[in-house]
Design goal:
By secondary structure, the chain is mainly α. The chain has 2 domains: 183 residues, Growth Hormone, Chain: A, CATH 1.20.1250.20; 204 residues, MFS general substrate transporter like domains (Growth Hormone, Chain: A). Helices cover 77% and strands 0% of the residues. The protein contains 17 helices and no strands. The longest helix is centred in the first third of the chain and has 30 residues. The radius of gyration is 22 Å and the shape is globular.
Length: 417
């Protein structure tokens, strides 16, 4: 009588706290993207700010939401994940409420700072929950579910605000942010509880803020790392233009077309092609892959300018989806390679710096280009606006290629001052 090997044990299920965190991420992203896709238009058309003032405000927002988590993230370990989420969504709900209730410049600034502060407390917690509570051997799947939830939130939020804007008003569509954040706050209060495990060793007390700051200073003395972070900031300047330039551009160029739905081409492209693009680009050297991603992003910008209107916009969002799939995975892997043992979190915090720098410069540049080439009631010179961004992208790609030829060889951790 033959015996067969026992069937392998089924994989451990994801715990409840993981599932609640994913639901919270969907609510936060639908609120954020639902508001951000129309924020520029709202600030110009409803609040009545000048294009230059809006560009400066969005530049400030980019810095605040990208760099603040680097310094606030440590507080999440001190006060606990649940308390951090309660703080985050209280701030988010109040911020979106201010934006809706008081369409003035002062309250708009308060609102975007509140949104940045909410994100600073929220971002480390959800990713930390995914990392901490994904079952052994299922961490990769856990993060895949997390990234899918980001895209799901984007699709739901943008679709909802389009319906509200068309049926009611642009201002009313901001309530998506208020309601989404309030639901996330309620979900946290009622459902988010970390399981207690007495077998788990005591967690290390987080480093004081001063030690964190000095740690970043030491990391940035690595010339290779600092040069790389500055070089790739041009990529983030490009990606921010889908929120810093596109909404007002499309609202003036094609006011009857659904800019929110057009923007969904990007997350849908990623959802459909992510596996195929990853397979096609996995053999590329990391720096070459990132350079290629920036070049595809530059072509995306050019498409918007060469073909003004719906066709160019769809092509642009599609191409930048491809650029993201090529660039983003290699970027985070490349930054992680610089980290000494035990300093991975600190170095990954620095990965946010290029987004802040690129978004800040992009916001200022966007205001200037819109004023010059897209005046209200005047002719729209789409090629001059989007062609400028394409040239910046090509310049960024050339800098990355030069970086690879000079500083990009050898051990990543070498090059300290």
């Amino acid at each position: 009588m033959s015996t067969s090997d026992p069937a392998p044990a089924p994989p451990a299920p994801f715990p409840r706290v993981f599932k609640v965190a994913i639901a919270i991420e969907v609510l936060e992203r639908l609120a954020f993207y639902g508001v951000y896709i129309n924020l520029q238009v709202y600030l110009v058309e409803t609040v009545g700010l000048t294009v230059a003032a809006v560009g400066s405000m969005l530049a400030t927002f980019a810095i605040f939401r990208s760099w603040l988590p680097v310094f606030v993230g440590g507080f999440a370990d001190r006060i606990g994940f649940r308390a951090s989420l309660l703080v985050a969504f209280t701030g988010y709900t109040l911020a979106y409420g201010l934006l809706f209730a008081g369409p003035t410049e002062a309250l708009a600034y308060a609102a975007i700072l509140g949104m940045g502060l909410g994100g600073a407390f929220m971002k480390p917690v959800v990713t930390g929950t995914v990392r901490r509570y994904s079952p052994e051997g299922r961490q990769t799947q856990g993060f895949a579910i997390f990234y899918a939830s980001v895209n799901a939130g984007s699709v739901i939020g943008k679709t909802t605000v389009y319906v509200l804007r068309r049926l009611l008003s642009l201002r009313t569509s901001l309530l998506v942010g208020v309601v989404g954040s309030a639901l996330a706050l309620l979900t946290t209060a009622l459902l988010f509880f970390e399981p207690r495990d007495d077998r788990e060793p005591a967690r290390r007390e987080p480093e004081p803020l001063f030690a964190v700051v000095t740690g970043y200073g030491a990391a940035l003395r690595n010339v290779k790392l600092t040069a790389f972070l500055v070089a790739v900031s041009g990529y983030y300047l490009l990606i921010e233009q889908f929120y810093q330039t596109f909404p007002l551009y499309f609202a003036r160029l094609a006011p009857n077309l659904p800019r929110e739905l057009v923007s969904l081409v990007n997350p849908l492209t990623i959802a459909v092609l992510q596996v195929a693009v990853a397979r096609a680009s996995k053999r590329l050297d990391p720096l070459l892959a990132m350079t290629l991603g920036v070049l595809v992003g530059s072509i995306s910008m050019l498409a918007m300018g060469v073909v003004p209107g719906l066709g160019g916009a769809v092509a642009s969002f599609f191409l930048f989806g491809v650029a993201e799939m090529i660039f983003s995975p290699r970027f985070y892997d490349f930054v992680a390679a610089f980290a000494p043992k035990g300093k991975e979190g600190l170095y990954m915090g620095l990965a946010l710096a290029p987004a802040g720098l690129g978004g800040f410069v992009g916001g200022k540049l966007s205001g200037a280009l819109i004023e010059r080439f897209m005046p209200k009631g005047g002719a729209i010179d789409a090629l001059s606006i989007w062609g400028t961004y394409a040239v910046i992208g090509v310049g960024c790609a050339l800098v990355l290629f030069g970086y690879r030829a000079t500083l990009g060889r050898g051990d990543a951790t070498s090059g300290s001052a």
